[in-house]
Amino acid sequence: MTFLSALILFFAAMLGGALNSVAGGGSFITFPTLIFSGVPPIQANATSTVALWPGSLASVGAYRKEIAKQNRVLMMVLVGTSLIGGILGAVLLLRTSQSTFVRLIPYLLLLATVLFAFSPFITARLRKREPTTKETRISWSRLAGISLLQLIIAIYGGYFGGGIGIMMLASLGIMGMENIHEMNGLKTVLQSCINGVAVITFIIAGAVFWPEALVMIVGAIVGGFSGASLARRLDQRIVRGFVILVGTVMTIYFFVK
Questions:
Q1: Would you list the domain boundaries of the chain?
Q2: Which of 36, 15, 35, 4 is nearest to 227 (CA)?
Q3: Residue 48: band (very low, low, confident or very high) from pLDDT cuts 50, 70, 90
Q4: pTM recorded for the entire structure
Q5: Per-residue pLDDT at 76 exceeds 70
Q6: Which of 109, 56, 65 has its CA nearest to residue 86?
Q7: Mind giving me the DSSP string for 43-90?
Q8: Residue from 233, 202, 204 nearest 22 by CA
Q9: In this structure, are residues 188 and 60 in contact, taking their beta carbons and an 8 Å threshold?
Q10: Are 185 and 169 spatial neighbours (Cβ–Cβ below 8 Å)?
């Protein structure tokens, strides 16, 4: 890794960390940058996950009040399925050949970009529902169904991860949760669990390019704390538009390539 590559990776991670703290979509920046810097696609995905995970973990603290209100049984079941799914997805990624993953990249980026683009509409629909102050109650059969859905989302999250936030918000809405802030709190916990076990799996498997990862971890932390303050001064539509533009360009690039 040259000094120029390290500098580019640092600023890419800083931008990715800032975007994640404001609108999400940081992996649209970090994942392609790692590939362009010469990291093989599977290792690039693993390294990107490692680089952005500390910021995701830190955001859990911001929702501690909302998290404390969650149904304990529901939370334990969903955390368990998230951990299992995250490991399965990470192992599946590591067992995928580089050539197969390269062919999947444009479709994964397309899915993530579409989910990100339509996330405001989904969130707006969820916000229209009257918030409830009662603890979420759910039958065992419905809990089993939503756990299966969360397991599928977690497997996708461990494998690639783009768009899992909006997937989880939608599934929690289907489940009957109504308070968008509590939904975001639970989503943040589950996303941190999925990425956390994926990170551990990638580290054990030796799939992380550590020089690049360490540079990007520092950049993501700097971006999350300082870059976000600048991004918040911008119109949210501009920030989201930028992420969608990058996702679209990367999707087209990998389809053409």
A1: 3-256
A2: 15
A3: very high
A4: 0.82
A5: yes
A6: 56
A7: HHHHHHHHHHHHHHHHGGGGGHHHHHTS-HHHHHHHHHHHHHHHHHHH
A8: 233
A9: yes
A10: no
